[in-house]
Write a structure and sequence with these properties.
Strand content: 5-15%
Largest sheet: 5 strands, mixed
Structural class: mainly alpha
Shape: globular
Helix content: 55-70%
Oligomer: single chain
Low-confidence stretches: none
């Protein structure tokens, strides 16, 4: 009776307790925010949207579209009241992350007919490394996963194809590479479902596939045309890059699919890489070809075992291996039994994993499809564990990949090995647990889910405290004390200051609208949007790099800069991209106004004077 009450309580309130925990966790971390470069770009764009809309100007020709603009608009509107605020932007993503949990729960319960397992799936999703890392940030992955979940929900609801297409536009806007990674898989799903209904008529099959694909992609095609041909939709320069609409064409995008870049170990510059067979010029041609093929295989195998691909800082091998094996071994059966929810999920997942493996990528890029991975893993626990051969293969392959992967780990090797041993042993235990009664078997699986989620959550929290934004905040102050630094300058004066890692954050706080939509690449001349783009006048804040003091002085005069700020971080080796303090101290045209001691850093403020 007592157990029934607990189970009833969990089924009734478990989701809301979990969602409340996500919100509380996210808000707690906002007190230890440390903005990094990518976030600062999105924040600056949001501020620009806010200021332009406040002035009654549309944003279509301005630099506000890097990885989309739609999810920035709600925050921009709130800025009319609060002004530029990192907290407001972060809070929006926290609520978006919580909403993603609720949406995922509805998908699991309503369309996959899961009850207690639905909550288990949300628990696994909410305790993954990247969810806990990304929720209290302004990265684009949270809008991307929310958009994808909303799209999947509408698809499973069997809404009209044009409505599905409109929701797909939201995915395209939230994170363009997610859109392109899932499209092949979803079109494959359309083909399979159409084949089931039109086996005897090739003409009807083609008509169905082409018609549905057309309606699905039409809104996205219109969206892209409006982006590059009209002032309605802001340019996403990364999307222009993907489509080859920049001056270097497809060169940058194609480079990231070359084996050299796609299989690089991204832990650090001098990271260990998998062994490749040396090929000598004098070797026979057939031997060279054979060695190249073996090396190619080894390179991609290396990517599978490297720390930033499938480990506790992304999706661990103990999850991804059973998911892949279970999905591949069950796919034909799902098609035969018309379990098209599973077919669609696996098609999208494998399409995305294919791009993830064959393109330069790391753990954070995998996050948008974590819900699909969790769906497959939940069904592996629910149905696959009774297939002894599948469990044995999962254990052996996981053990092999983990054992090889430990060689390439740089930090906490013993702890990672221990965690993997515990989880692999737990998986192996299910080979014997099948002998127990169903009730006990369910308890074993529930305990394993809780253990797995607790471990991944613990790794994420440890990262947060030791290397992540909490650690950085404790060392350098909230957002590296950017606002405190800027308070030491006169608001009306032009200011130059070295960038210590916050990139666009000073421009965000100072409401500097001067941002080039082509900031990283340049559109081709024939693209209509190129002539429409507008860059506002520079603001009062500058952070250009310099190496020659004479060049630096000329730029100071050109931009009529009155104050120069230079920050020295304690224990940090300056690369010299922004000159040096010694050079500034030796200049007669610079007079030191004040020296301000901040958290593990010192700010030097100079006044520019005439020679």
């Amino acid at each position: 009776m007592f157990n029934k009450k607990i189970r009833s309580f969990i089924e009734k309130y478990g989701l809301w307790i979990l969602v409340f925990g996500v919100v509380c966790y996210g808000i707690a971390v906002t007190f230890f925010r440390n903005i990094v470069s990518d976030e600062s770009i999105y924040l600056r764009e949001t501020m620009i949207i806010s200021e332009l809309l406040r002035q009654g100007k549309w944003i279509g020709n301005y630099a506000v579209g890097v990885h989309g603009f739609l999810f920035k608009i709600p925050v921009a509107i709130v800025y009319w009241v609060t002004g530029p605020s990192v907290f407001v932007a972060t809070l929006f993503h926290i609520f978006l992350g919580a909403a993603s949990c609720v949406l995922f729960y509805l998908i699991l319960k309503k369309f996959f007919k899961l009850r207690g397992w639905a909550l288990a799936g949300v628990f696994l999703f909410a305790t993954t490394f990247d969810f806990l890392k990304l929720v209290p940030t302004y990265y684009r992955e949270i809008p991307a996963v929310f958009s994808l979940l909303l799209f999947i929900y509408i698809v499973l609801e069997k809404k009209s194809w044009i409505l599905q297409g409109l929701l797909l536009v939201l995915v395209l806007d939230a994170k363009d590479h997610v859109f392109f990674a899932i499209i092949p898989g979803f079109i494959l799903y359309i083909c399979i479902e159409a084949w089931r209904k039109n086996k005897k008529s090739t003409a009807n099959l083609l008509k169905t596939v082409l018609g549905r694909t057309f309606l699905l992609l039409l809104p996205s095609v219109v969206f892209i045309i409006l982006m590059f041909c009209t002032p309605i939709i802001p340019v996403n320069i990364f999307l222009a890059n993907t489509l080859g609409l920049i001056q270097n064409g497809f060169e940058w995008a194609a480079t990231h699919f070359t084996p050299k870049f796609a299989t690089a170990n991204l832990v650090e510059e001098e990271a260990k890489t998998i062994y490749n067979i040396p090929i000598y010029d004098g070797s026979p041609g057939f031997l060279k070809m054979g060695f190249r093929a073996v090396n190619l295989f080894l390179s991609y195998f290396g990517k599978l075992v490297y720390p930033r691909t499938f480990t506790f800082i992304s999706v661990p091998k103990i999850i991804i291996v059973p998911v892949v094996l279970f999905s591949l071994s069950s796919f034909i059966e799902w098609v035969k039994k018309s379990r098209f929810n599973m077919v669609m999920s696996s098609c999208i997942l494998f399409s995305y994993l294919g791009v993830y493996i064959f393109r330069a990528s790391y753990g954070r890029y995998l996050f948008p499809v974590v819900p699909l991975i969790v769906i497959m893993y939940v069904f592996f626990l629910k149905e696959g564990l009774r297939r002894k051969r599948l469990v044995i293969f999962s254990v052996l392959i996981t053990f092999l990949l983990v054992a090889v992967g430990l060689f390439f780990e740089e930090d906490f090797v013993v702890i990672k090995a221990l965690l993997n041993v515990i989880l692999i042993s737990g998986l192996a235990f299910f080979c014997f647990a099948r002998r127990f009664k169903d009730k006990n078997f369910f308890l074993f699986k529930s305990a394993y889910v809780f253990l797995l989620g607790s471990i991944t959550a613990s790794v994420s929290l440890a990262f947060l405290l030791l290397n992540g934004q909490v650690s950085q905040t404790l060392k350098w102050g909230v957002n590296m004390e950017c606002r405190e630094v800027m308070n030491n300058f006169d608001e009306e004066d032009g200011v130059w200051m070295n960038d210590i890692g916050w990139t666009h954050l000073p421009a965000f706080y100072s409401k500097d609208l001067e941002f080039d939509p082509q900031w990283n690449w340049h559109l081709l001349e024939w693209v209509p949007k190129k002539g429409m783009l507008y860059v506002p006048e520079p603001g009062e804040y500058y952070a250009f790099k310099w190496y020659d003091i004479n060049v630096f002085k000329k730029k100071i005069e050109k931009y009529e800069i009155s104050e120069v700020g230079f920050i020295v971080l304690e224990g940090y080796e300056d690369k010299g991209d922004y000159g040096s303090l010694d050079l500034l101290e030796s200049q007669e045209w610079l007079v030191l106004e004040k020296k301000v001691e901040l958290k593990n850093k010192t700010l030097y403020v100079y006044r520019v004077v005439e020679d």
